[in-house]
Amino acid sequence: MRFREEALARAQTQEALDLPVKLTSPRGWIVLVTLAAVVLGGGTWAFGGSLPRAIDARGQLTSRQGIFAIKTVAAGQVVEVFVKRGSSVKKNAPVAVVTDGRSRRLVRSPAKGRIFSLTQVGEVVQVASTLAVAERVDAAANWLVAVLYLPATQGAGVAPGDTVDLTVDSAPVAVFGVLRGRVASVDQLVSSRTDVADFLGDAGLAQALAAGPARRIVVELVASTQTASGYEWSTKAGPPFRLGSWTGVVGAIAQPPLRPAQWVFPR
Description:
Radius of gyration: 34 Å
Helix content: 10-25%
Shape: elongated
Largest sheet: 6 strands, antiparallel, barrel
Order of helices and strands: HHEEEEEEEEEEEHEHHEEH
Mean pLDDT: 81
Distance between the termini: 76 Å
Structural class: alpha+beta
């Protein structure tokens, strides 16, 4: 009797092995197919898609004609200043007087321009110190450019012709959008903070724009006859006023897009 029960058990086991195996339920197949589609789509996007990329740099708007520094040829103390910030100055016009206690030296402007940075009476200066910085003004071509400063370690990828979107301090981006521009030139030599301060005529502003060695980038604004500012914006009209020189800006310099996989597997 015992042998018969064992034989019956073996027969039932054999029958169970002959039944088809159910690997998964219909719901499980849906999950597997969905997962496979996600993986395949992600891989296709990672190697075939692209991500927009831009480098941000701070700077100022200034005259297209450029700027120049008014420097002293003598060391001493500034005892008189004949011009004001924002005022115009003619070539060879007196700007300030510097004395060393024995003699007085009159400092004159080397060119015609408009003062936007100026020393103060009582300041002690050294030979070749910048007393004032002015921008060249030509009524026939009074166009603005943006001068940006980018950390030297980030400037290698920027080249003339790159498009730039400029956020302007005096024109809220949420209302007026961004100002359009293109890179006109990139300095090959790196500027120290002292170089930037000499160019801007303001050590505090230089520190804010260039915390360390930086590369100067000049951005040409895209002109437009359809806006009050005279330049092209991301919105149709832009701000209803002209832009003033020496207004702060932040430029987003467009760079070639990257494939998503390059973020994970950089070269």
